[in-house]
Amino acid sequence: MAQPAPKPEQSGAKIIPIQEASLYEAHKKIYARSVTGVFATWRWALVWITQALYYGLCWLEWNGRQAVLFDLVERKFYVFGLVFWPQDVFYLAILLIISALALFLFTAVAGRLFCGYACPQTVYTEIFMWVEKLIEGDRAARMKFDAAPMTSAKLVRKAAKHTIWVAIALWTGFTFVGYFTPIRTLAGSVMGWQLGPWETFWIFFYGFATWGNAGFMREQVCKYMCPYARFQGVMFDPDTLIVTYDAERGEPRGARSKKADHRAAGKGDCVDCGICVQVCPTGIDIRDGLQNECIGCTACIDASDQVMDKMSYPRGLIRYSTEHALAEHWGGKEIVRHILRPRTLLYGAILSAIVIAAAVGLTMRQPLKVDVIRDRAMLTREVEGGLVENVYRLQIMNLAEEPRRFALAVTGLDGVQIASERIVEIPAAAMQAVSVRVRVAPDAGKRGSNRIHFEVRALNHDDVFVREKASFLLP
């Protein structure tokens, strides 16, 4: 019979205690320190510009309507004097291509400029942090405030902060929906408690997303949710301007007196104060080199320059520079000269060509579209006088924001003529289906399909003209 296995303590085997290890790092709240400086001023300027456009553009009027409106119900997009229909989806594709190429170009030249200055996540985080600082104080005060036990005074200040956050978030959601429903109509519905279900959903959903992302998630969106941080490495090269720490100048770092000769003591310019880490909204240490968490906000540059000024050291310990510039000790002229390299020239040439082509296409765009559809219920028939008749339906779209009258004509076969109404009136920015009967003698063409062309011309606007092909069937 088999003997039972000896217990570990009987066999002399060493017992190793089981240790649990988490696969995820515990999240630590980041208390970003406020900073002033040249780049902070630029960042806030972009906040004002982007939000003035976002909140204000939907209130502008153009030709008696909202200047920018994406009317999904009517399937018409209004952008100032332009009216786009579903058939103009080509222009949307062009816009996406231009945006992608612009992102590639800006990233190749100067890193994550969009992330640091114009990304909605960055912009609203700046706004929410400004409110937080206004109510709870700067970094040290907020840390002390959060660590303190809950009191009525603390509850009031927390409630005030979140009330302002929610108000900003809801106004942001309201503005977002105002680009799809006329903003003044939407405002009247809100005031009268008559919001539709989808408007209600999107106002609260977009508002909740703004409140959650800018108020709580903040750097986690940039670090874990945004895909741009993951593929930025393939868009950089050694000549890309990025936020860099000059380790050759700053190391070895260490504290010292302002009056001390740090060079004689074998120390670099970095005083190891940690302010560059305290101001970082994602909580990284730029002295560890380029990291995918860095959004290029340049707060560490402003903080470093302030410390250098206090220590009477030259500015630029942390600065915009390139890998080649640090290695070769280039100055500003050499850095700018290397911006014009094959990659950026190619991106710039392609982007310029597409922008010019799109601008020319929009300029030469006819404010008239015509689709010809054959009447499938009746392919061909013989009518009085021995003529053969085909029936068509013309979808005429008047893209102009004024009613226009159009003359219809047909060519392609000897003696071909329109037997129905030849003058139609289409309202402003509207589409109308027109039934057209076309007749021709049976011997005017070959049996089967014959090519004809419909011509639609705006009366009193000879330059507004469309010619569309169709097939005429002869028995």
Gross morphology = elongated
The percent range for helix content is: 40-55%
- State the end-to-end distance: 100 Å
- Strand portion: 15-25%
Low-confidence segments, given as residue ranges, are none
Number of strands: 16
Number of domains: 2
Which structural class fits the helix and strand makeup?
alpha+beta
- Quote the average pLDDT: 89
Gyration radius (Cα, Å) is: 34 Å
Sketch the major β-sheet: 5 strands, antiparallel
By DSSP (H or I, 4+ residues per run), the number of helices equals 17
How does this model look, in words?
The chain is α+β, with helices and mostly antiparallel strands. It has helices spanning 8-11, 38-57, 89-110, 113-118, 120-136, 139-147, 152-177, 183-191, 197-217, 219-225, 228-231, 247-250, 275-278, 299-311, 323-328, 332-337, 342-363, and strands at 61-62, 65-66, 68-71, 76-79, 82-84, 242-245, 318-321, 368-374, 381-382, 388-398, 404-411, 417-418, 423-426, 430-440, 448-458, 461-474. The strands form five sheets. Strands 8, 9, 10, 12 and 14 form a five-stranded antiparallel beta sheet that branches. Strands 13-11-15-16 form a four-stranded antiparallel beta sheet, with no helix packed on it. The chain has a three-stranded antiparallel beta sheet with strand order 3-4-5, with no helix packed on it. A hairpin with a 5-residue loop joins strand 9 and strand 10. Helix 3 runs antiparallel to helix 17, helix 5 packs across helix 9 (197-217) and helix 7 (152-177) packs across helix 9. 23% of the residues are buried.
